[in-house]
Design brief:
With 333 residues, the chain is α+β, with helices and mostly antiparallel strands. The strands form two sheets. Strands 1, 2, 3, 4, 5, 6 and 7 form a seven-stranded mixed sheet that branches. Strands 8-9-10-12-11 form a five-stranded antiparallel sheet, covered by helices on one side. The longest helix is centred in the C-terminal third of the chain and has 23 residues.
């Protein structure tokens, strides 16, 4: 059957048409917030750039970013035009070893050679679950003379199934504590629930902790979800490095409006003696270790996560959030 509308023709465009050089054009382009977000979509991560041309010993990493999905998770991005080579493979391993908190390496090139894809696959299969390696091919395409559009093709990435199987095999050395078993079961079920709800919140790894962090779009601040064996679950806004509680007091000044927007009272905990603070809502008298309660607990948790993001997201993303001068000026007014 003939097409009922005119169809265009895809045309591959040479990268140097848009970016004459990798270091002078492509890397600065990729480091912009809008474009690193495109890369993040391909990786399934939310990224924020920390630095360009980050020095590591005698080498320089093209881009150093952080994952907003997890605290203390830095992402090294290494770019090259043309085909991948052994030199860049060695460099990314050097960066991983030399950058504190580096957990993910993203290697971008026009062509990922088969032996380098195999190397990335081997690293994903044989390193611990804390580390992830991606090989990405960058392309430019246009339709019938349109402006060229970039496309990130994921050639190699962590295999969640393989890692889960490997983690399970390690447990043969001995049983996990009951608390860890309970947490793994709950968070695994919640991960499936989020996926079934088509939520933008995602859990991509097995978790033995009693808490799991989600991004709110501001480095240093996150949405924490918590479970306890004492019969409580919670959702909270959490800032982990604010020793002067500046961000906390900025929000406290808006308490009435915040709780009105949220639709219910919140617990405000400035955690004296710690660098962190939290503002949250908690559900008591439940059992997160009982699979029969999972669906109800998941529904409650996702609803509160959405509210936390909606109410606090715009407030913590303003440039003055957490800045001492902003708090002082507010007090003067």
């Amino acid at each position: 059957m003939a097409s009922v509308i005119p169809l265009g023709k895809f045309e591959r465009v040479d990268l140097t048409t848009a970016w004459p050089t990798e270091d002078g054009n492509f890397t600065p382009w990729l480091a912009s917030p809008a474009n690193v977000a495109l890369l993040g979509e391909a990786l399934g991560m939310e990224l924020e750039v920390e630095a360009e041309e980050h020095r590591v010993g005698s080498f320089v990493a093209d881009i150093l970013a952080r994952s907003l999905d997890e605290t203390e998770h830095r992402v090294v991005i290494e770019n090259q035009f043309g085909r991948t080579d052994h030199r860049h493979l060695g460099q990314i391993l050097t960066y991983l070893a030399g950058i504190e908190g580096a957990k993910t390496v993203v290697w971008i090139a026009e062509t990922i050679q088969p032996d380098h894809r195999a190397a990335v696959d081997w690293l994903n299969a044989n390193t611990t679950d804390d580390f992830s390696f991606f090989a990405i091919e960058i392309e430019l395409w246009r339709i019938d003379g349109s402006p060229p559009a970039p496309r990130f093709n994921v050639i190699a990435s962590p295999n969640d199934w393989t890692r889960t199987a490997r983690t399970a095999s390690r447990r043969l050395d001995g049983p996990l504590p009951a608390a860890h078993q309970m947490r793994i079961a709950y968070w695994s079920s919640f991960a499936d629930y989020l996926k079934a709800q088509n939520s933008t919140f995602k859990i991509r790894r097995e978790n033995r902790d009693n808490w799991f962090p989600f991004s709110i779009g501001r480095a240093g601040v996150q949405i924490n979800t918590t479970i306890t064996q004492e019969g409580r679950i919670g959702v909270e806004l959490y800032m982990h490095n604010d020793p002067e509680k500046i961000g906390y007091h900025q929000l406290l000044e808006q308490k009435a409006n915040i709780e009105q927007d949220f639709g219910e009272p919140l617990e405000w905990q400035d955690l004296p003696g710690k660098k962190a603070w939290r503002i949250g809502v908690f559900l008591h008298g439940v059992n997160p270790g009982d699979p029969a309660q999972f669906e109800g607990l998941h529904k409650w948790m996702l609803e509160k996560m959405g509210k936390i993001r909606k109410v606090f997201g715009p407030r913590v993303k303003v440039p003055s959030f957490g800045e001492p001068d902003a708090l002082a000026s507010d007090a003067a007014e």
